[in-house]
Amino acid sequence: MARPKHKLSSAELKAKPPGKYSDGDGLWFHKRPDGGAQWFLRYTLFGRRHEMGLGSFPAVSLKAARQEAEKWQAVVRDGKDAIKERERQNREAERNLNILADIAKDAFESRKAELKGDGKAGRWFSPLELHVLPKLGKMPVSQIDQRDIRDTLAPIWHTKADTARKAMNRLSICMRHAAALGLDVDLQATDKAKALLGKQRHTATNIPALPWQDVPAFYQSLDGGSVTELALRLLILTAVRSFPLRNIHLDQIDGDIWTIPAEAMKGRKGATSDFRVPLSQEAQKVIAEATPLARNGFLFPGVRKGVVSDMTMSKFMERRGMAERPHGFRSSFRDWVAETTNTPHDVAEIALGHTVGGAVERSYRRTDFLEQRRKLMERWALAITSQSTHVVKLEVPR
């Protein structure tokens, strides 16, 4: 059957008086009394007549209107309602326009419960915030490919390898999160980007640590009574990580025991129990000295709000001309234990809050060696408050 000949021409459209004019094949031109005009498609499906708007004139030209009409008539011939099909496609397109910044925030919110301190320190989100979102944050996540990721992380791929690795990991989580939301994303984009970026040349280096022989002199120099100095003293005495130390709350202290909530303990994945830290007499003295400075129950408050930052303690050591960092005192303690005591391996590792043994072994071993660790930490306190650094073998009962 011959296709109907088009009835309208571009030249006559503006001069048309108000009314509805057929161009053929279901395409109509509607000129309103106010001078405005629009296109619509008239079609019949399952015995019912429908009218579908195709845009206003002259924004949509006659040629463009005919192309749209032809596209949607093909949909009708397939037995689908053109209006409903267009709505479905619009919903899908709208869903796929979710920008990465919003997806990243949603992914972060959904993972807060499994992050230390509910992610309040911002360490999970910061690699994205600093190195990915400034370039890709406003981009629809469905349009992000390996080239975009490569170009974004290439400047730090070798020079800041660990940060780049974390950023890539977080981005991969965001892409999987988007897929779980029903968005059309390339789940292999990060792996492809890694292949384009190549193997990282950067070699990881350990955090600089002060030799244990030099710890006593440094500890005894922390005599200013400031929050930073008191925090560093307790950090050294307990050999814990910076986060639980900086967030220590008076409610967590009971006599000579400091109980760190399980969620604040890094390196104890899957742990459901809190971690008890025995406090030496020297550690209790530091806590007593810091208590008057506490704010909202936090022993080491920040200058304006929150708690003292890890950067504040690091900068304090840097101003002393030191390359070492606060976290390194854990290594100082571990070296001291290995070189000057006969402490069993498991006791030494648990003193650092490390998980020891497999799941089955841990299920049978119910002790946390508190009494043995209590004696060990008392001896460590004596060692760093002593004027002498003479090595003495210390026996720790098995």
Low-confidence parts lasting 5 or more residues at pLDDT below 50? Answer: 389-398
CATH class (first level) name of the largest domain: Mainly Alpha
Number of domains: 3
- Quaternary assembly: single chain
Written account of the structure:
Helix content is 45%, strand content 10%. It has 398 residues and is α+β, with helices and mostly antiparallel strands. It has three domains: 18-95, Integrase, DNA-binding domain (Double Stranded RNA Binding Domain), CATH 3.30.160; 100-197, DNA polymerase, domain 1 (Orthogonal Bundle); 212-385, Intergrase catalytic core (hpI Integrase, Chain A). Strand 2 and strand 3 (37-45) form a beta hairpin. It is elongated and about 105 Å long. It starts with 9 loop residues before the first helix and ends in a 13-residue tail after the last helix.
Index terms:
18 helices; DNA polymerase, domain 1; 3 domains; hpI Integrase, Chain A; alpha+beta; four-stranded antiparallel beta sheet; 398 residues
Structure summarized in a few sentences:
Residues 205-377 form the Tyr recombinase domain. The chain is α+β, with helices and mostly antiparallel strands and 398 residues long. The chain is 45% helix and 10% strand.
List the helices and strands and how they pair.
Elements: H1 10-13, E1 19-24, E2 27-31, E3 37-45, E4 48-57, H2 62-77, H3 82-95, H4 100-111, H5 126-131, H6 133-136, H7 146-153, H8 161-180, H9 189-197, H10 215-221, H11 227-238, H12 242-246, E5 253-254, E6 257-260, E7 275-278, H13 281-290, H14 310-319, H15 329-340, H16 345-351, H17 359-364, H18 370-385
Antiparallel strand pairs: 1-2, 2-3, 3-4, 5-6, 6-7
Helix pairs in contact: 4-8, 7-9, 11-13
